[in-house]
Amino acid sequence: RKIGNHDLKPESLVMGYGFDPAMSEGSIKPPIFMTSTFAFKSARDGEVLFRQLAGKREEGDPEEADLIYTRFNNPNMEVLEDRLTLYDAGEDALVFSSGMGAITTALLACAGAGTTILHSSPLYGGTEVFMRTFMPDFGVTPFEMDAWATEELILAQARKAAAKGPLSVIFTESPANPTCALVDIRACARVAETIETETGHRPIIMCDNTMMGPIGHAPLKHGADLALYSLTKYIGGHSDLVAGAAIGTEAAISKIRRVRNYLGTTLDAHTCWLVTRSLETVQLRMEKAFANARLCAEFLRDHSKIGKVMYPAFFEEGDPQKTVYDEQCQAAGSTFSFDVKGGKEAAFRLLDSLQLVKLAVSLGGTESLMCHPGSTTHSGVSEDIRKRIGFTDGLVRFSVGIEAAEDLIADLTQALEKV
Ligand code: PLP
Questions:
Q1: Which run of H or E residues covers position 359?
Q2: Is residue 242 in contact with ligand 1, taking CB distance under 6 Å?
Q3: Is the shortest distance between the CB of 214 and ligand 1 below 6 Å?
Q4: What are the per-10-residue average pLDDT scores of the chain (419 residues)?
Q5: Residue 404: CB partners within 8 Å, gap ≥ 6?
Q6: 244 Cβ inside 6 Å of ligand 1
């Protein structure tokens, strides 16, 4: 991680960290270990490994657990997990078969029956439905706060939740999908401390950082215990795989690892290899996408047929969200939403007129995508919540890719002429 006293940057380390070519015939890149199980050196070795797996290490057992079985670990998983700690500065990481695999496994591991959860709103539809309809079946009561809530409001909601049962998790999604509202993670960390002082239980702070990705926002640096990702999005980055990750403190990760072992929400070796390959270019891809997104957002802001553009760099002076943006974000991201004047019909007209930008859900790929969340990804969000969060009928979500910016603007121009 260093040359002398010089600390190497994640974009340098991510090419080779956690893999020694000498262990694999000098191969510069990790081979794909397509095996379900790993040979023990001896029967005693097998006994020791299973003791370690159960968290019952004895004196004289090796510190590091060896490979056992691909549902628990695999060289491709381990290389990817080591490299995922780099951008987020996490102590440890775990990969999962999808972003939802990461979120649900983390929640089931950290929120026991009888506890409460406080979550920000809006959330990605899948997460919101899991919180609202599945968690109560496991005896966990969810409480809600607006993504843009101030510290005072977060604390008030946290106290309300803690009064019903130990507050186990403060779950945030920042920026929120699709409105790009930002959660004040630093305020959540201070609230967690206050709740610990008052109740003796410190809630684990999770942040789904999928929308901004690790280049634009590093929640662990602001006090979160876990950064959660749909690797399907920016980190995978090519819209050709589905995967997820949790990155964070050793304590939080080891809790979740045990539950992942039982649920089997692990990521297969081949997809781990693909994500490891993608990780080498994540910074390049995201910086280009960020630059394109800014040009597109500015073009849309100035267009007479477009209303509000929900792009984090457009928060105005005096808006508390601007302070959160300035303190927490290194970039404005490349997925944002905007309101097409004329509502749903006008939005559909725009979407159906695009020639270069593809019409699909998902985000964070090399290609630009647009969708109408109100009738797709967020169709389950109720009318009153939509009103509260500024989610209009004409709201369109734009995931800006790495094409030539002038081509994207040309496509937006011709499509808007037809609205
Ligand atoms: N979190 C956010 C913010 C998302 O947008 C998504 C998917 O769109 C997910 C989580 C779920 O990820 P996956 O589809 O990889 O399960």
A1: strand 358-359
A2: yes
A3: no
A4: 96 96 96 96 91 86 85 97 97 98 98 97 90 95 96 98 98 94 98 98 97 95 98 98 98 96 97 98 98 98 97 95 96 97 97 98 97 89 82 95 98 98
A5: none
A6: yes
Using the mean position of ligand 1's atoms as its centre, give its distance from the Cα of residue 57 in Å.
36
Bond into 30 cis (ω within 30): no
CA atoms lying within 13 Å on the CB side of residue 415? 24
d(CA 414, CA 150): 41
In sequence order, what E strands does 126-275 have?
A: 141-146, 167-173, 204-208, 226-230, 244-248
Determine if ligand 1 sits within 6 Å of the CB of residue 208.
yes
Q: What is the pLDDT of residue 369?
A: 98
Sheet containing strand 358-359, strands side by side:
306-310, 335-340, 395-399, 369-371, 358-359
Place of tokens 């990705």: 213
100 Cβ inside 6 Å of ligand 1: yes
The dihedral built from the CA positions of residue 179, 184, 189 and 192, taken in this order, carries a sign that is: negative
Per the CB < 8 A criterion, the answer to whether 212 and 329 are in contact is yes
Q: What is the pTM of this model?
A: 0.96
Q: Which of 123, 174, 177 for mutating ligand 1's site (highest number of atoms within 8 Å of CB)?
A: 177
Report the distance separating Cα 330 and Cα 308, nearest Å.
23
CA–CA separation, 341 and 350 (whole Å): 11
| DSSP label at residue 268 | P
| pLDDT at residue number 325 | 97
Under 8 Å CB-to-CB from 156, ≥6 apart: which residues?
Answer: none
Is 173's C-beta closer than 6 angstroms to any atom of ligand 1?
A: yes
Output the pLDDT for position 90: 97
Q: What is the pLDDT of residue 215?
A: 95
By residue count, the chain amounts to: 419
Spatial CA neighbour of 363 closest among 228, 190, 234, 182? 234
